[in-house]
Amino acid sequence: MSETRNLTDPYHGIACPKCHGPTRVIDSRLVPDTNRIRRRRRCDKCAFRFSTRERIVGETDTLAEVEAALHTLENQLRELVTKIHDLRN
Prior knowledge:
By secondary structure, this protein is α+β, with helices and mostly antiparallel strands. The protein has one helix and three strands. The protein is 29% helix and 26% strand. The longest helix has 26 residues, at 63-88.
């Protein structure tokens, strides 16, 4: 059974990168000339604010395009973890 999400729900399933609490979308903007949305979020638990950049994946995207986007996200996550680790040391 596939899970369906209510996209009008302000949480959108994104956890706070600082405390892992639930977050709320406080602003959304379509980035001109791209297939991306920039969302400003605020954590309900610790009030931390951060931005996400989301790519709209459509039915016309090929598997290779989706895999390339996933690879990019994995690299960005790896870099972020490295930076956080460096800050702690």
